[in-house]
Amino acid sequence: MTSSAFHVELDPAGAIEVPAAGTLSRTLYADDDLRVVVFGFSEGEELTEHTSSRTAIVEVLRGEFELTLAGETVTARAGAWVKMDAGLRHAVRARTAAVMMLTLVGPVVGGATAG
What we know:
Elements: E1 23-30, E2 34-41, E3 46-50, E4 55-62, E5 64-69, E6 72-77, E7 81-84, E8 90-94, E9 98-105
Antiparallel strand pairs: 1-2, 2-9, 3-8, 4-7, 4-9, 5-6, 5-8
């Protein structure tokens, strides 16, 4: 059995600009078992309710988000870390200009949409 490693030195919060309007994303890493994406949201932008086909981890790097997780809404500020199981219904809205890192872990689970 062989092992592999991937190493990068990067400031994820600085990996993307927050747009004047809209949402931007940049994939930092992707393979069959892991995907890491940084998102920049202008104030008020949102991702409407959806599910992910993988376990998802959101880390807020800058700003403030309103996260709706299985119908419950929470405020997530810089430093917040959230784990969501595959299939969990969720939505994201930027309360301020904000940056988050999304890590999708594990193989794709059938039946879920988006992500």
